[in-house]
Amino acid sequence: MAYYEKKKSLLMTDTSIEEANAEIEQLKKLLQQAKSVALSQEHLAATGRLTAGVAHEIKNPLNFINNFSKIANSTANDLAEELTEPDSIDWEEVEDLIDILQEATARVVEHGIRADAIVKSMLMHARGEEETKIDVDVENLIQDFTRLAQKGFGSEYPEGKIEVETSVSTDMPPLVVPAQGLSRVIINLVTNACYEAFKTAEKSNGPNSGQVSLDATYNSEKGLLVIRVEDTGGGVKPEVRDQIFEPFFTTKPTSEGTGLGLSICRGIIESNQGRLYVEDAELGGAAFVVEIPAETGVSI
């Protein structure tokens, strides 16, 4: 009798283990679903910040296009009127009008190209699919996305006046890099730096301003692109420097962060055999350093 009772007990134990394993698997699925939703929300939030930056950035070329288009239209009308009377054409006036028309249309083309580049930058950032490395002008990429990040932050926190300085080494060559992923990293790091600098200044009861700097260099011997983003924020305590790169870890209020930005950034950099780490900044806050392998490209 004792044998059968023991066997029954073991069978019940096996059943309990199976049920527990099934519950664990179900919890894993739910956690993965929650993570996927959170990642989508983080990407949407980042795209939203970029969109705000684009809206500010694209206004200038559009204003130029509108103004020079009006000049071109008015000049074309004047030119047409001047040419209606062949016997009394003032050829000097015609030449002047042609010069004005050519200058105006050249400016329309120039600023149209600029607006197109801004939109392409946003599309490159917004796409979520896997990317291949491409040959890019790294200085332009860094300048463009740093500026967009600053504009996006200013749209979200208009009371925060953050001074952002960008320095790219003069000998920076064109490089083959994961441009889409790198743009996401730049936007995230610069936006975070602006936020930390702003919040620290706000706590000091002084003017709501702060400083952020981005320095980029290329180590040709090691084939490494190095990007360093510093701020005048409160810094990162040594005991949480590893935690800040973990998914869902954040020091921001729940309404202002998902805790996925730095995790995504590290994932992007490490998937390209690079490193992303944090250390103390000369400005007094935190310095996030990106080191990513990059081969030199062709002249652009």
How would you describe what is shown here?
The chain is elongated, with a radius of gyration of 28 Å. It has 2 domains: 1-128; 133-296, Histidine kinase-like ATPase, C-terminal domain (Heat Shock Protein 90, 2-Layer Sandwich). Helix content is 57%, strand content 16%. The longest helix is centred in the first third of the chain and has 81 residues, at 2-82. A 5-stranded mixed β-sheet has the order 2-4-5-7-6. Strands 1-3-8 form a 3-stranded antiparallel β-sheet. The termini are far apart. It has 5 helices and 8 strands, in the order ααβαββαββαβββ. Helix 3 crosses helix 4. By secondary structure, it is α+β, with helices and mostly antiparallel strands. Strand 4 and strand 5 form a beta hairpin. It has helices at 2-82, 91-126, 138-156, 179-203, 261-270, and strands spanning 134-136, 161-168, 175-177, 209-219, 224-231, 275-280, 286-293, 295-296. The mean pLDDT is 79.
